[in-house]
Amino acid sequence: MKISIIKIGGNVIDFPDKLEEFLALFSKFPGHKILVHGGGVLASRFGESLGVMPEMVDGRRITDKDTLDIVTMVYAGLINKNMVAKLQALNVNAIGLTGADGNLIQSVKRPVKNIDYGFVGDIEKVNTSFLNTLFEGGLHPVICAITHDKSGQLLNTNADSIASALATSLAKEHHVNLYFCFNKSGVLVDEKNENSIIPLINEEIYTELRKENVIHSGMIPKLDNAFEALRKGVHHVWIGKAENLLLAAKGKLSGTIIERHRYDLY
Ligand SMILES: Nc1ncnc2c1ncn2[C@@H]1O[C@H](COP(=O)(O)OP(=O)(O)O)[C@@H](O)[C@H]1O
Ligand SMILES: CC(=O)N[C@@H](CCC(=O)OP(=O)(O)O)C(=O)O
């Protein structure tokens, strides 16, 4: 079975017009598909309005108890249910889920090393048979950035990591492509110049660009997860502008293609 995992970034979700436009493209995307979302921008803003200040380290949120409550309300509630309703209006039979629903994604609270991330989950298991059942029923899962530890604790989990874990688990039995859609044209040499797209990136280039701080913050988990997915059997990984999703699906040049090593070119 061919399955596409499509991750939509928080900056797109934050603009209703852009979100509508993206969901219309998603509705036209062919075949079995999963939509993964976070909503980090909205969660930060909502938290601030309640006096809970966001704290990020390398693109990942430090999540204390209050922050966990906020991200659960924002990701699993407000954003997820609105997206599902909008997709239903586009005749996509979407079903909104956290990692706790159907025991879809089990994770473990990240151990404290140099940094205590709090209630942040590292993914351990994905229930692919549940996903297969949903596909057989003609449903399109819309999965948010909340997982659980199977002992009653919800955990905040980076949405790029969720997309990658779903892709790698499904890749054991299916042909899986992974698309990271966000608000920029791809991985850029100069973040402020939308024309400075790096069309192909491999781990060697990534390591160099990270040292030079050309790649930083939220782009770090995105690329770490992209390489992890390719190492574990995902067929194709793309990072680019949400509005170019259908171009990417048709294999047309747009955004950044991720490759494991330089020799993947040949
Ligand atoms: N080289 C780079 N090219 C593009 N974006 C970059 C780069 N380095 C860092 N970034 C930052 O990463 C952000 C994307 O990460 P994030 O905000 O977590 O994504 P998302 O929109 O998917 O939630 C971009 O908006 C940009 O600010
Ligand atoms: C642990 C962690 O960092 N969780 C992320 C989950 C949401 C997310 O990834 O949202 P975007 O895709 O909009 O960035 C966070 O709370 O920001």
UniProtKB/TrEMBL annotation:
Q: Which Pfam families match?
A: AA_kinase
Enzyme nomenclature, EC number: 2.7.2.8
List the residue(s) that the UniProt entry marks as the site Transition state stabilizer: K7, K222
Task: Report the principal subcellular site.
Answer: cytoplasm
Specify the pathway: Amino-acid biosynthesis; L-arginine biosynthesis; N(2)-acetyl-L-ornithine from L-glutamate: step 2/4
Under catalytic activity, the entry for this protein gives: N-acetyl-L-glutamate + ATP = N-acetyl-L-glutamyl 5-phosphate + ADP
Q: Where is the protein localized?
A: Cytoplasm
* Keyword terms: Amino-acid biosynthesis, Arginine biosynthesis, ATP-binding, Cytoplasm, Kinase, Nucleotide-binding, Transferase
Q: Name one GO molecular function term.
A: kinase activity
- InterPro entries xref list: AceGlu_kinase-like_sf, AcgluKinase_fam, ArgB, Asp/Glu/Uridylate_kinase
Q: Where does substrate bind?
A: G39, G40, R61, N156
Q: Domain named Aspartate/glutamate/uridylate kinase: which ranges?
A: 3-240
Question: What function is annotated for this protein?
Answer: Catalyzes the ATP-dependent phosphorylation of N-acetyl-L-glutamate.
Database matches in HAMAP family: ArgB (MF_00082)
Task: Please give the family membership noted in the entry.
Answer: Belongs to the acetylglutamate kinase family. ArgB subfamily.
Protein name per its UniProtKB record: Acetylglutamate kinase
